[in-house]
Amino acid sequence: MEGHFQAQHPWVSYNRLLTDQTARLVGARPIEVVTMNSLTVNLHLMMVSFYRPTRQRHRVVVEEHAFPSDQYAVKSQIRFHGFDPTVSLVTVAGEEELEELLNRQGEAVELVLLGGINYASGRAFDMARVTRVGHAKGCVVGFDLAHAAGNLILKLHEWDVDFAAWCTYKYLNGGPGSIAGCFVHERHAHNENLPRFTGWWGHDPATRFRMGPDFEPTPGAEGWQVSNPPVVAMAALRASMDLFEEAGMDRLRAESVQLTGCLESLLAPHAGDWFSIATPRDPERRGAQLSIRVRQPVQAVCEKLRERGIVCDWREPDILRVAPAPLYNTVEDVHRFAEAFLTI
User: Which segments of 163-301 are extended strands (E)?
Assistant: First the structure.
């Protein structure tokens, strides 16, 4: 109890130590962000509020080869509302196909939910355009920013995104299960009529400890909190966020473009029979990642690289994901990887 109210950084308001940094990281206003839960849990909480299907409007658009957890979550939400995912779930390859789809049947689409960057290909979506065309057809627009937060320059408030969620175990340096983040646009901040799953930590802090029977939501994203946030997990995230604050996303993004471009320039001339680059060539359409399709067992390639002290990862069936992270990787690291990979 003393930790809640009398610690140097009281637990009762500890999440707010991350608010301003998180808002700057994703291009939001402080009232629009909160640190809570894990990524898929946050996506479910957002869909409870923002996926409100009807017989006329029930479809959800996701990208092709969306991360499996996103697919599972969306399909379960569709089933929960009594619809069939084989009918209600629609996939698109990119912004052009999305725009064509919405022009044809936008009145049937309730929610557009894309990854800011596709986990497998490394392709970055034009989130401003996606939001604009989605709203033009009356759709709710949300994003899974697992591979975008801490990687791309984000402007969620300016783009008018309805909601977004992200993990902190990719570019934000946490491990699996580390606490996640959530964005809800300010125009939804005071809408108490939005359905939501509630818990006491989303209750207005001014009256939370009166222990009353009626829920009074905190204005903004904090109103979607359910349970006490894990203070130790937030303390670890603060250490990482301090580094991002010091480095600055503009500088990190510029370094990212340089490092990933260097990696591509070393590999592209050799692409052909036994490997190809799946990530877009345009720096604006990717983050700090190249996805390489290899024509030999991809796990074996990954292990051979690890034997040389190089850590990347792989995804079935044939994708090697290489991420020169600008916070700590260098041009020398990129050259070392390219030499080892081409030798293998």
Answer: 163-166, 181-184, 275-277, 290-294
Cα–Cα distance, 319 to 297 (Å, whole number): 10
Q: Is the dihedral of CA 331, 166, 32, 139 positive or negative?
A: positive
pLDDT at 332: 98
Does the pTM exceed 0.85? yes
Model pLDDT, residue 1? 64
Beta strands in 99-254 (DSSP E): 109-115, 140-144, 163-166, 181-184
Pick one of 3.90.1150.10, 3.30.420.140, 3.40.80.10, 3.90.550.10 as the CATH number of 249-343.
Answer: 3.90.1150.10
Whether 233 has a pLDDT exceeding 70, the answer reads yes
Pairwise CA distance, residues 186 & 33, whole Å: 9
pLDDT digits (tens, 9 = 90+) for 127-168: 999 999 999 999 999 999 999 999 999 999 999 999 999 999
CATH number for the region 2-247 comes to: 3.40.640.10
Alpha-carbon distance of 121 to 93, in angstroms, equals 11
